[in-house]
Amino acid sequence: MQRRASLFAWASTRPLRLSCPLAQHTSYSAQTHLNAANIQMLSKPLHDQIFNSASGVKTSAETVKRIQEHLKAFGLSDKDTAILPDINFSLPELSGANIDEHFRTLALNQTEKIRDQAESIVRMKKVPPRPKKWVYREGWTKYDAKKRLQSRVAHPDDDALIFDIELMVTEGNCPTMATAVSPHAWYSWCSPRLVDEQFHEQQMRSSEGWQKGHEPENLRPSDLIPLGSNSEKLIVGHNVGFDRAFVAEQYDINVSLSRERIAADFSLRIAVAVSSIRCLCTSRSPASRPYSAFSISLTKAEVAGRRSSSMKNSSAISNVKDWIDDTSLNSLNAVYRFYFPHRDPLDKSSRDTFVKGRMQEVRENFQELMGYCASDVAATTDVFKALWPQFLERFPHPVTLAGMLEMGSTFLPVNADWFKYINSAETKYAELQKEQQKMLMTAAEDALNFAVDQNYRNDVWLWDLDWSVKKVRTKVADFRPLTNRQGEEAKAPYLPDAPQWYRDLCPREIEVARGHQAGPSKISTLMRVTPKLLRLVWDGFPVHYSDKHGWGYLVPKAPHERELEMSLWEQEEEGEEKKSSKKLTAKDFPLEKRERKESLVAEGQRGRYSHSVNSRVRYFSLQTSSPREFKRKEEVFDDVVPGASFYKLPHKDGKGKRVGNPLAKAFLAKLEDGCLRCLYGPQAEAILHHSNICSYWKMNKERIKGQMVVDVTPEHSHSLEGAHAFQGVILPKVVTAGTVTRRAVEATWLTASNAYADRIGSELKAMIRSPPGFHFVGADVDSQELWIASVLGDAYFAGVHGSTALGWMMLQGNKKDATDMHSMTASLVGISRDQAKVFNYGRIYGAGVKFAKQLLMQFNHRLTEEEAAAKARLMYARTKGRKERSLGQRSLCLGHACRCRFRRADSDDSDYKEALWSGGSESHMFNQLESIAQSDVPRTPVLGCTISKALEPRNVDSDFMASRINWVVQSSAVDYLHLMLVCMRWLLDRYAIDARFSISIHDEVRYLVRSEDKYRAALALQITNLLTRSMFAHQLKFNDLPLSVAFFSAVDLDVCLRKEVGMDCVTPSNPEGLRVGYGIEHGQALNIQEILEKTAASLDKDQQSSLSPSHQ
């Protein structure tokens, strides 16, 4: 392999004094390694252990000049380089000639037996014959077809199994039955709950426990399915991430005793052909969602454009058929039919018994239902046999398989505080909901005052409510609310005198008799009347609902426009009256058109509206002398209310969309910044504040409360006190490759929020608690995907780290000097740094100018469409650049990764025109991403993983480009995770560090580690990051690595999961914080220097004994 030792420039720097005593491991050298872009690299001793010390190709003067000119164009060439202390310590010896061979060796060793077991399944010509009759007996039964024997076994004694379980959805989380098959025998399992007909339902964990306000009985491993732990097993299932939660051994914290390796043909299928694409691209599934900055989902616009362009020629139509024919939905039946179209589809009718039925029905139909379960196992076997060879072909690097298997072993411990958390969140939520409803009911009752003398006619919010009343003997003025001002219930009278809108909010008399609260108790923030009762304003203008356009706000017109419109409307109204000979009344139309116009005109001219409660309130002020000069940026309509213009509220998905509720989650930011306000009074602001506080728990509580907690409390736990007296485990139901990019998918934990002071229940992650004697050790990969994208651009441009403006900003830029990527983008178009992050990630994921324009208008609704478009074009011109076509020689790109451009069959090199991005800080990166995305068979540049068949260019031509560019970056990030998991498993095993993988959330990884080994585990994580980044550099033909990305900025050592070790996670449901409320102290966050000091720069356990107690 050629080396580039000359990329290291020797720069003399003044030695600086270290603030900590680490002279043997860190130092400021007079000969610090700087490369041609003036980026500090690894120290020479560390570099030589990873990349070897052989010299390579010299960076030419021309290349150095090109780098300097490029950085100068973006104002970066004269920036000072921050010099970090060099890091020097001995790494574990690597295997093979280079780091790629090292990782291959590790992964092959970790998966050797699993591969053999998988091959034994694939070699199986057909599954053993099924038993004619299943044994109705508790536990496992083995059916040996050759010996024709049926025998009771403690667990299946084969090491390769295809497995499926069934459970009664209506009766809790306890598994009901299971079947498994190996190349040699069938197995069946029956739950004691199924066989024992005397079993009482109160013993089961069900939702009734929550409804009655006490903790439900938790399952124990003895209630689950044993698969054995005396040997390493391969367990294959279709959705085995779900089935795994019902396997007893998976709840054992001791890694050496939990040796089942889980493989899901579901994940293999998504990785190979992404069956989810079909549901994203067809109208048959609700999974199609608009594009977001962090989503790989194929957009409706892309699909529509694809179908529209497909009509232009028959070849395009054929291509559409190609990619549809290469996909299927994700269900077992759909995948089975995809691979075996000539076979009969699976009969799934029996599934309804498990979804809707009761245990007695299962007993009565035992043979049929056990046969149904076995049919799924047989189908899964056939699908796995079809998928396994394809998987190995399309994912040739052994790290991918090893990483997927490790990712499938997530493990989250909890204690009694889990139930305290849920009860606290539920209590606070119910309290705020009750307060909110009380305030809303008061607002509804206050609005009844406008019925007096029909004052509602002059109120800009209430005029179009249905004020019609039934014929009664009393007057409207005599009507009294159903509750008094103290909120105490009065006797519920019949409601004949109430206006119709109020009656709609009240339960019927018979419902009140059954216990429903009297009065307008049906009211909620979801109802259309609520914004009107709260007197909601947008930028000071009253909101209004149009059946045609949705929610918007009203702005008065200029005087001459109003007079003309009133005149035309009067003529139209006269014609209608002559034709119909019917005069409109208040009952037909509560506010006469003329009166409505004059009211809006008069009040609008004065710049205010009035109501009769308390005092006159100023609703809006016209900022200019003429309303004509008022220019709003949203869509405007003149056909809603005469005398006023109706402006649609901006929708988060862009122009043309209707806003259904201005109090929805999408408008919380507008409530917080004051753009959206309530003028009803102080209570109105409290109502909106309550909605904000309750939003997280409202959306997530069912998933959180539905988590399956298995009780693993030791039998002899007398020494455990407080919350630790109960020990439980949650196994997240993870799909290890659940998206196009092979990212893991799970509904609760992989999308869990960090703690926010104004969100009930947002302290969720902190409720994952390490058992006594254990710590969580983990870290976040700093700017993982941005670094991956930037290093691809550096490799494309000059083969030098930091040679592009994007690469330099990632490696050397910092927030303090506003030279980092996000600060530069924010400064360019006048937005906040946090907002700039959304633009930057969205752009790198393939989003275009249209996306940026829409997001700009979402962040600042006062921008016109033209202003937003101009800012978006400026942003993209400065970052992505402009596309230009060049003749002749094609650009250099990664050797094995791909060709740079799709070539037409009838073109030749001499006249081939290649479109390339140029002039932007990210142009080279986008050229590289597109070259990979448009290659004949796109592969990730590090592990060589192939894109889904459905997105291969042979099927989609040049369509779905945004999704394919997104795939390059995010799928490479999955490669990064898999490399980390493999490297950590190697270090944990080699140095006998007592730890197991806990969870990975995007760019975050956490391990559960015995406390005495926590510092060694922290060092192992730092070494893992160093070797993983080095693997990326090596595969991209670099021979070095920047020091700034070599190590985690900090490794967290903590007893719970939280964003930062010092966060107290104060929320409305945890007002005292973690320290006072749960007794959780702050954790430790250690950088590489501190970790080297605490471990004596060694992973050997023997070395730790020589450390002083202060270092341990």
Automatic annotation (TrEMBL):
EC annotation?
2.7.7.7
Catalytic EC class: transferase
A Gene Ontology cellular component where this protein is annotated is: mitochondrial nucleoid
Annotated spans, Disordered:
568-588
Q: Name one GO molecular function term.
A: DNA binding
- Report keywords, A-Z: DNA replication, DNA-binding, DNA-directed DNA polymerase, Magnesium, Mitochondrion, Mitochondrion nucleoid, Nucleotidyltransferase, Transferase
PROSITE patterns according to UniProt: DNA_POLYMERASE_A (PS00447)
- Cofactor(s) needed by this chain: Mg(2+)
Q: What is its main location?
A: mitochondrion
Residues in domain DNA-directed DNA polymerase family A palm?
761-1013
Task: Establish whether keyword Iron-sulfur is in the entry.
Answer: no
InterPro entries hit by this protein = DNA-dir_DNA_pol_A_CS (IPR019760), DNA-dir_DNA_pol_A_mt (IPR002297), DNA-dir_DNA_pol_A_palm_dom (IPR001098), DNA/RNA_pol_sf (IPR043502), DNApol_Exo (IPR041336), RNaseH-like_sf (IPR012337)
Please indicate if the UniProt record lists Protein transport as a keyword. Answer: no
The UniProt entry's GO biological process terms, in alphabetical order, are:
mitochondrial DNA replication
Tree of life domain: Eukaryota
UniProt subcellular location: Mitochondrion matrix, Mitochondrion nucleoid
Which family is it part of? Belongs to the DNA polymerase type-A family.
The record's PANTHER family line, in alphabetical order, gives: DNA POLYMERASE SUBUNIT GAMMA-1
Protein name per Swiss-Prot or TrEMBL: DNA polymerase subunit gamma-1
